[in-house]
Specification:
Rab-GAP-TBC_dom, Cyclin A, domain 1
Length: 446
């Protein structure tokens, strides 16, 4: 059998090039800036002999600038700020994206093409584009107000109905029944009435239809959600900390996950869903449009549902061993690597015996949110969401590209070193990685 060689296009010097400074993760705080004081004019330089016999006038006194205040320092541009100034190409692409988003009817094909090259949070571009790419917003802008109003009203109904405990639900039903009565029966006026409690409404009932039995089952899931939400990106002030803002964001994530679990009894909640939810909510909540930011929770819920619809089989335990479950998805990644780099595939799975489930399970189920920085994850998601074939196929190509880009280290490693490398993937040039993933789609297996 002839081993498949690595494609020639991968041997380009492009892969050994240093990463561009544009890929640096943005920093939010600039160091203090102290301007250099203007030096006084040297008197010797001013001693040119004048036509008149009088001595030259003394040099003018130049007052030194006072040190800038703290507020002025925060406004001074730093080297980091200058380093992340977008290039002319990025500005042109951003202008194209804004023009596309402002059209009465948005061209989804063109939107995908632009989004695949990377989006920016400026002017709410990424927030609006993701909603369009996920099908939450229609391409016809005239339909936006009615669609958004309908969806946001529906989410409010979900909160009112699904986040209520059985006692509150019973009181609500009792008030409803009392309001329906005509009040003609006067016998019980002034006396305390005793509510009739059915077997299903009793807290000790174990019946499957009992609201209390269901409530206690939900409690276990809610406790798991609470633990995971508190662990969501502890390094980001947006999600963690003692501020009211961070606590409100955590509560929003919590409500979304609880409602999703109750509406999807076949999946309910699977640990790690909070990591998939976080990027969506972060992008939508930071939309500069006040209305979109205020309704970020509702918008995030429906986009989360749309996103998971393409991956839901990976979260359903009953389908793990089926042709659509997570093991089948990992097997597709293994086959993809074998087609494009059989030497690497053979070394990993046969020689060093690294089972792809040991590293690819987390890569696939969490959509690479744990392998890269938060900013890099957003850039990867721009490409995931913009692919017309669907996010899963693109995800598998990106995972395959991740393996190919560290092939030299993998080929030189054994089971222990390779597993450690893939479970702690090194920082990479995301643009290079996405380029390789795209080549895997266009490049026929060799």
């Amino acid at each position: 059998m002839v081993k498949n060689r690595v494609p020639d296009w991968l041997n380009s010097s492009l892969w050994s090039a240093a990463a561009s400074p544009d890929d640096d993760r943005p920093r939010r705080h600039s160091p203090k800036y102290t301007p250099t004081p203007i030096a006084p004019i040297d008197s010797q330089e001013a001693s040119i002999e004048p036509p008149m016999p009088e001595p030259p006038p003394p040099p003018p006194l130049v007052k030194e600038d006072a040190p800038p205040t703290q507020e002025e320092c925060e406004q001074c541009p730093s080297k980091e700020d200058e380093a992340r100034i977008p290039s002319a190409e990025e500005l042109a692409r951003q202008s194209q994206m804004i023009s596309e988003l402002l059209k009465k009817v948005i061209n989804l094909k063109e939107l995908r093409r632009l989004a695949a090259q990377g989006l920016t949070d400026a002017s709410g571009i990424r927030s609006t584009a993701w909603k369009l790419l996920l099908g939450y917003l229609p391409c016809d802008r005239s339909l936006w107000p009615s669609e958004l109003s309908k969806k946001r009203s529906q989410y409010k109904h979900f909160k009112d109905e699904l986040l209520m405990n059985p006692s509150e639900l019973a009181r609500k039903m009792e008030k409803s029944s009392l309001s329906d009565s005509d009040g003609s029966n006067r016998e019980g006026i002034g006396s305390l009435s005793r509510s009739h409690i059915t077997h299903g409404e009793h807290p000790l009932s174990l019946g499957k239809s009992s609201v209390w039995n269901q409530f206690f089952q939900d409690t276990e899931i809610i406790e798991q959600i609470d633990r995971d939400v508190k662990r969501t990106h502890p390094d980001m002030e947006f999600f963690s900390g003692d501020t009211t803002f961070a606590r409100n964001n955590q509560e929003a994530l919590r409500r979304i996950l609880i409602i999703f679990a109750k509406l999807n009894p076949g999946i309910r909640y699977v640990q790690g869903m909070n990591e998939i939810l976080a990027p969506l909510y972060y992008v939508f909540k930071n939309d500069p449009d006040e209305e979109f930011s205020a309704f970020a929770e509702a918008d995030t819920f429906f986009c989360f549902v749309e996103l998971l619809s393409g991956f839901r089989d990976n979260f359903c335990q009953q389908l793990d061993n089926s042709v659509v479950g997570i093991r089948s998805t990992i097997a597709k990644l293994s086959q993809l690597l074998k087609e494009h780099d059989e030497e690497l595939w053979r070394h990993l799975e046969i020689t060093s015996k690294v089972n792809p489930q040991f590293y690819a399970f987390r890569w696939i189920t969490l959509l690479l949110t744990q392998e890269f920085s938060f900013e890099d994850s957003l850039r990867i998601w721009d490409s995931l969401l913009s692919d017309s074939e669907g996010p899963q196929e693109t995800l598998l190509r990106i995972c395959c590209a991740m393996l190919i880009l560290v092939r030299r280290r993998l080929l030189a490693g054994d089971f222990t070193s390779n597993l450690k490398l893939l479970q702690n993937y090194p920082s990479s040039n995301i643009s290079h990685m996405l380029y390789v993933a795209n080549k895997l789609r266009a490049q026929p297996p060799t």
